[in-house]
Amino acid sequence: MLAESIIRIGRPIANSPDLTVRERIRWLTDVESENCKNFFQNVLIVELGNEEDALSYVTVGELSTEKKSFVVDTNQSTAFPIQYPNGGNSRNAQGFYPIPCYLMYGAHIKAMAEKGQFFQAVLPRLKRTVGYKQFGNKEIETVASRVSEILEAHHTEFITDEKQLGILMIFDERLPVYMKLNEKTDHGDDVWIRESRLVPGTHLYLSGQETLKSIIDAKLDEARTLGKALHAVSTFTNKETEEVVSIYNKSWLWLSSTWEMPKSIYWGKNEWTKGIKVDKESYEAYVYGTQFLKKIQVPISNAVVKEMFSPTTSVEAKKHMRAGSFEPIFGIPMVLPLLDEETDQYYQKFLRIIRYHQELKDEDLHLELLAGMKQSIVPRSSDNYRLTILYYSGDLSRGEMHIRAVIEDVIPSVAYEVQNIIKQLRRRHLGQIQAVFELEQRPFYRVESLPSILANAYGPGYVWSTMQAVLHREPLTLERAVSATAKRLNELANKESYWEMKQELVFFYSFVFFLNRYNEKILAKGKDVKELADWKAMIEKYHAGSVELEDLQNAETLGFVSGLLLKQFSNSYYKKTGKDYVKHRVMKFGSKLTPEMIWKYGTLRCEELAQQWDLNISKNFHAVLAQVLLGFIEADKENLLISQKDAFMTAFWSGYLSYKSNKKQEGEEINAGA
User: 519: part of which helix (H) or strand (E)?
Assistant: First the structure.
């Protein structure tokens, strides 16, 4: 269950003895959110006194001239534990507030110029604030009135014609979260706000422990709106507890109350506890866990998303797909121990995941390779842990959450082996494959990550299922990759786009390399698919003219040798006629090339045309041609030209486009690879 995994992630953070009050405030609120940084430019502190009130205007941070953006003072920002709204109209009161500290949007700030308007804006927030629940409505209205009056009296000092965002804090010493001290200090659990305007020489503080308690209470209040029960058994601890609530959490909308499907039609609006009951301790861990997942989530780059979801059977269709035309997808890695371990050890692992900008180490799991998540790592762990990779799309701030895939129970050692295979492919074998087709040796975007490799091989509809198969040590097949490659090659052959055809074959043989190493290293199976390097012996036999009929008993080898044969013939034919033999004689009227056309319009006519045009072709050609023609007859009897058409055509173009004459090949070798 996703909720249980989040609680298991959050528990060591909640129980960590090393976390200070300021760090916990950063965990539980949105003071570090990129969405909130501009609110700290205009912070208004209304200090309520016994006889009079005071207003302070501060800026928590400074404008960076280099980045041309506002940089928040992260130490001082913890004095203003704000919550960023998720979904709904952000100008309306949402959820519950731990203390009277609220985000102010442009409309709110403009309303401060007229106390009646601002009174209506701030009153609903005060009624939803934890500390004011014990106050009657009349007293809350008095607070709203006093705040509105002082803001109206001083609005000309801070309201401008430009668009403004801000934060309003109401310092009411009657609330347990606030206190005044006679000195300014950064030590202890209490958080300094500023010097008092009403009593100069004294300082305003947040009580750290009371603030943390209020934050959790506010979250529980939100959960209670959808269900609560007394003296009931928690779903997660299986123990009876004083109170259980629904697990709904306004800050994490994967379990949103607006969903229809997870909720039974027999539940009332406030009966979500019939589905999941959570105790206070588990709920606190859940809140920490959701905040942690927010910190480590990484958007999948547009280039990778394009590779994952573009059509794979049409080159032209893929060309017209733009990288920015796909919905953004986010990835989250979750590491969970099979057995409980020391809280502090587990928390330190979490910190390493968060610091994804650090220098990557070879022993870490690089999620850019494994999952398309840029600059994200998971520290190398033993197989006493399990990795879960979660993908979602949508906008948290609007409450639009769509889980795309959850790949659970990934064994770290398996993920590490897959990572090593991709590294080998990118660092060494890709260049060797490109060299065979006489292409520039350079990075190839289709093999930059596991999602890209699998999507290009199997198609966008199979991305998640094949990723799960690979990371769970399940077998893969080659048929879909062969079929898709054959279709793309035929499309490009009609356009004579030979450079692009070579690129398609580079990817195909890159995938074949990946598949063979996956079968060998992870499934402990023998290599059963021919790689490009495996054709070396056949190429040598071809140039020696020693290819026999027994060598041509499968469609793949027959196709490859046919490709070598027609390319050698085409070179001589072009020298005599100035025309491309395959295009001029074999591919009629732009039709898609088939094994039968290669046989009947290609190889069968070679001897006749060689005599007619007096083509000077080396002896090996005639010796191999006889065997190939016999091979076609045998293949036709066994229906191989139809049943294995795609494998034949992929091998044919491999031979055709990789052919080198004896002069070029003299002293050269196709590297056999690892």
Answer: helix 498-521
The total of other beta-carbon atoms located within 10 Å of residue 245's CB is 26
pLDDT digits (tens, 9 = 90+) for 614-640: 888 889 999 999 999 999 999 999 999
DSSP 300: B
> CA 39 → CA 26, 80, 101, 168, distances in Å?
16, 11, 12, 10
User: Which residues fall within 8 angstroms of residue 132, CB to CB, at 6 or more apart?
Assistant: 100, 126, 140, 143, 175
- What kind and span of H or E run contains 211? helix 208-224
User: How crowded is the C-beta side of 15, counted as CA atoms within 13 Å?
Assistant: 17
Which residues in the chain come in under a pLDDT of 50? 256-259, 357, 664-674
Considering all CA atoms of the chain, what is the largest pairwise distance in Å, rounded to the nearest integer? 114
Quote the CA–CA distance of 131 and 668 in Å, as a whole number: 81
Instruction: Give 314's Cβ-side CA count (13 Å radius).
Output: 8
Euclidean distance between CA atoms 351 and 11, whole angstroms? 14
> Which residues, in sequence order, are bridge partners of residue 45?
56, 169
- Give the pLDDT score at 666: 36
H/E stretch holding 369 reads helix 367-371
- Amino acid identity of residue 46, one-letter, is V
For 537, other C-beta atoms within 10 Å of its C-beta total 12
Residues 6+ apart with CB under 8 A from 61: 37, 40, 41, 70, 71, 72, 73, 76, 77
Tokens at 139, concatenated = 């007293």
What string of H, E and C letters represents the secondary structure of 577-621? HCCCHHHHHHCHHHCCCCHHHHHHHHHHHHHHHHHHCCCCCCHHH
For every residue of 214-283, which 3-state class applies, written as one string? HHHHHHHHHHHCCCEEEEEECCCCCCEEEEEECCCCCCCHHHCCCCCCCCCCCCCCCCHHHCCCEEHHHH
Task: Kindly list the distances between the CA atom of residue 661 and the CA atoms of 506, 542, 564, 571, 582, in Å, as whole numbers in the listed order.
Answer: 21, 11, 10, 9, 18
Query: What Cα–Cα distance (Å) separates residue 668 from each residue in 57, 239, 632, 659?
Result: 77, 73, 30, 12
Neighbouring CB atoms inside 10 A of 625's CB total: 24
> Phi, psi (5° rounding) for residue 661?
-70, 165
Contact at 8 Å (CB) between 672 and 516? no
- DSSP conformation letters of 447-491: GSSHHHHHHHHH-GGGHHHHHHHHHTT----SHHHHHHHHHHHHH
Distance from the first to the final alpha carbon of the chain: 42
- Using CA atoms, how far apart are residues 249 and 241, in angstroms rounded to an integer? 20
Name, in order, each residue with C-beta under 8 angstroms of 318's C-beta and a sequence gap of 6 or more: 310, 311, 312
Nearest to 104, CA basis, from 141, 148, 62: 148
Token pair for 662: 């004896």
How far is 409 from 389, CA to CA, in rounded Å?
A: 9
Calpha distance 382→368 (Å, rounded): 20
Contacts of 664 (CB under 8 A, 6+ apart): none
**Residue located via tokens 């890159």:** 510
Are the C-beta atoms of residues 514 and 419 closer than 8 Å to each other?
Answer: no
Predicted pLDDT at 667: 35
| DSSP three-state, residue 56 | strand
What are 150-205's pLDDT values in tens digits? 999 999 999 888 889 999 999 999 999 999 999 888 778 899 999 999 999 999 99
Find residue 121's DSSP bridge partners. Answer: none
Residues in the chain: 674
